[in-house]
């Protein structure tokens, strides 16, 4: 989100030829401002990734958890392939606890 906002700021200063890039950047930033990532910092993301290292998740699974932090067992099942085989119930609860600690839910 920070990268896109910087891109948006610099694109606004450039010529019309980059209008479609500016539109995509604006729409993406506008969308992200209504998601949980607006409250995430580089440090909180690093802390989260360090905390979930022990679960041996794929890069894609980690990315999805950062973008849409799972708050229920079902959300973890949707993110983690073969989660029943790869994660115990205790692991799932631990991930949810880590998410809630590092990425507190935003009020909607």
UniProtKB/TrEMBL annotation:
<comment type="function">
    <text>DNA-dependent RNA polymerase catalyzes the transcription of DNA into RNA using the four ribonucleoside triphosphates as substrates. Specific peripheric component of RNA polymerase III (Pol III) which synthesizes small non-coding RNAs including 5S rRNA, snRNAs, tRNAs and miRNAs from at least 500 distinct genomic loci. With POLR3H/RPC8 forms a mobile stalk that protrudes from Pol III core and functions primarily in transcription initiation. Pol III plays a key role in sensing and limiting infection by intracellular bacteria and DNA viruses.</text>
</comment>
<dbReference type="InterPro" id="IPR005574">
    <property type="entry name" value="Rpb4/RPC9"/>
</dbReference>
<dbReference type="GO" id="GO:0005666">
    <property type="term" value="C:RNA polymerase III complex"/>
</dbReference>
<dbReference type="GO" id="GO:0000166">
    <property type="term" value="F:nucleotide binding"/>
</dbReference>
<dbReference type="InterPro" id="IPR038324">
    <property type="entry name" value="Rpb4/RPC9_sf"/>
</dbReference>
<keyword id="KW-0240">DNA-directed RNA polymerase</keyword>
<dbReference type="InterPro" id="IPR010997">
    <property type="entry name" value="HRDC-like_sf"/>
</dbReference>
<feature type="domain" description="RNA polymerase Rpb4/RPC9 core">
    <location>
        <begin position="1"/>
        <end position="106"/>
    </location>
</feature>
<dbReference type="GO" id="GO:0005886">
    <property type="term" value="C:plasma membrane"/>
</dbReference>
<dbReference type="GO" id="GO:0006384">
    <property type="term" value="P:transcription initiation at RNA polymerase III promoter"/>
</dbReference>
<protein>
    <recommendedName>
        <fullName>DNA-directed RNA polymerase III subunit RPC9</fullName>
    </recommendedName>
</protein>
<keyword id="KW-0539">Nucleus</keyword>
<keyword id="KW-0472">Membrane</keyword>
<comment type="subunit">
    <text>Component of the RNA polymerase III complex consisting of 17 subunits: a ten-subunit horseshoe-shaped catalytic core composed of POLR3A/RPC1, POLR3B/RPC2, POLR1C/RPAC1, POLR1D/RPAC2, POLR3K/RPC10, POLR2E/RPABC1, POLR2F/RPABC2, POLR2H/RPABC3, POLR2K/RPABC4 and POLR2L/RPABC5; a mobile stalk composed of two subunits POLR3H/RPC8 and CRCP/RPC9, protruding from the core and functioning primarily in transcription initiation; and additional subunits homologous to general transcription factors of the RNA polymerase II machinery, POLR3C/RPC3-POLR3F/RPC6-POLR3G/RPC7 heterotrimer required for transcription initiation and POLR3D/RPC4-POLR3E/RPC5 heterodimer involved in both transcription initiation and termination.</text>
</comment>
<dbReference type="InterPro" id="IPR038846">
    <property type="entry name" value="RPC9"/>
</dbReference>
<comment type="similarity">
    <text>Belongs to the eukaryotic RPC9 RNA polymerase subunit family.</text>
</comment>
<keyword id="KW-0804">Transcription</keyword>
<comment type="function">
    <text>Accessory protein for the calcitonin gene-related peptide (CGRP) receptor. It modulates CGRP responsiveness in a variety of tissues.</text>
</comment>
<dbReference type="InterPro" id="IPR006590">
    <property type="entry name" value="RNA_pol_Rpb4/RPC9_core"/>
</dbReference>
<keyword id="KW-1003">Cell membrane</keyword>
<dbReference type="Pfam" id="PF03874">
    <property type="entry name" value="RNA_pol_Rpb4"/>
</dbReference>
């Amino acid at each position: 989100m920070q990268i896109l906002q910087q891109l948006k700021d610099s694109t606004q200063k450039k010529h019309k030829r980059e209008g479609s890039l500016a539109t995509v950047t604006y729409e993406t930033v506008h969308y992200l401002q209504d998601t949980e990532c607006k409250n995430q910092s580089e440090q909180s993301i690093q802390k989260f990734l360090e905390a979930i290292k022990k679960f041996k998740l794929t890069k894609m699974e980690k990315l999805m958890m950062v973008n849409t932090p799972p708050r229920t067992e079902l959300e973890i099942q949707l993110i983690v392939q073969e989660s029943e085989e790869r994660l115990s119930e205790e692991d799932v609860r631990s991930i949810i606890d880590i998410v809630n600690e590092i990425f507190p839910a935003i009020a909607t």
